Amino acid sequence: xxxxxxxxxxxxxxxxxxxxxxxxxxxxxxxxxxxxxxxxxxxxxxxxxxxxxxxxxxxxxxxxxxxxxxxxxxxxxxxxxxxxxxxxxxxxxxxxxxxxxxxxxxxxxxxxxxxxxxxxxxxxxxxxxxxxxxxxxxxxxxxxxxxxxxxxxxxxxxxxxxxxxxxxxxxxxxxxxxxxxxxxxxxxxxxxxxxxxxxxxxxxxxxxxxxxxxxxxxxxxxxxxxxxxxxxxxxxxxxxxxxxxxxxxxxxxxxxxxxxxxxxxxxxxxxxxxxxxxxxxxxxxxxxxxxxxxxxxxxxxxxxxxxxxxxxxxxxxxxxxxxxxxxxxxxxxxxxxxxxxxxxxxxxxxxxxxxxxxxxxxxxxxxxxxxxxxxxxxxxxxxxxxxxxxxxxx
Length: 394
Ligand code: ATP
Ligand code: MG
Description:
This protein is 40% helix and 21% strand. By secondary structure, it is of the alpha/beta class. The longest helix has 19 residues, at 264-282. The chain starts with 5 loop residues before the first strand and ends with a strand. The structure holds adenosine-5'-triphosphate (ATP) and magnesium ion.
């Protein structure tokens, strides 16, 4: 049997699982870990007690890449790298100060915890701790033991085919495993906000389908590629998704030619909500997601939201609704979408932006204006010309 030098240990998230049972959570998490880690090589991914073990199965398996990828998998609260040594006290005492030399040199305090699942091991846990602590102090005399709040927590686990040494954990991506929360449709533009909204909802375990409205020739192929690039980045966390591109040119031209300019944005957004509701239902989505933040622009005031909500036939989730632009940008940078979002390619909204949008719109006002449009025909035409693309993480 191949015995790896180093493995990854994973701690699950959401301690207080209420709606979802732990079994579903863990099974889905392991499935997601398996597909995310495929490019890193062959790993044995298994569960024992409440820990998931990720073990390289040969020398080709790339543990650095695996660790990088594990950090993007929702449902992983924390993880650590662990060193495997032979199951003897000599081996443990030699390996601990060497393997953790960097952490121990930088720390002021430490604590050792031991777990002995192999009960045939001659020493009991308190003895393993005492001997390991003494060995550490001998090599790092500046350290003190602090059992309550140590800088470095050294874990020694004696298990079936080896002893494992690791420290406290690195932060995982948190959240819930993708697929445990159903599916929702993200209305994705080329902006900063909607990719962040996508990430935030995916973090709650919800699989995504993306919908983008494009208005060629007013919007370019490059603008569509920008959306694909943004989603490819989001897919690092959210997993594979399909992108539905809805042709919007004819609808926007009809609005331009038949309606008062001050209502352009809201009329357009009502088309988006109606069409997205239809597409989302076909794609088995249970909700719509947008990147709206209240007060950010004229079309995102509460009265404006009331006007667009009125035509959505699925619940609309707006995860960034109460966030400042700065807070949204911080997340966009963290997930790597920000540099893509700021590339200058025109969006269908910017093409027909009114100079003076209506500040207190009402549903009645919009319904009245919409009488000048053949909504049914325009929407049927758009729905007959949907295009689909598949988005995969790199
Ligand atoms: P973003 O940064 O996400 O573009 P924004 O602040 O620029 O948001 P708007 O352009 O008013 O706001 O759009 C509000 C929301 O409407 C977006 O967050 C997105 O969910 C949706 N949306 C806007 N344009 C499109 C589009 N072309 N295709 C699909 N959804 C869109
Ligand atoms: Mg926008």
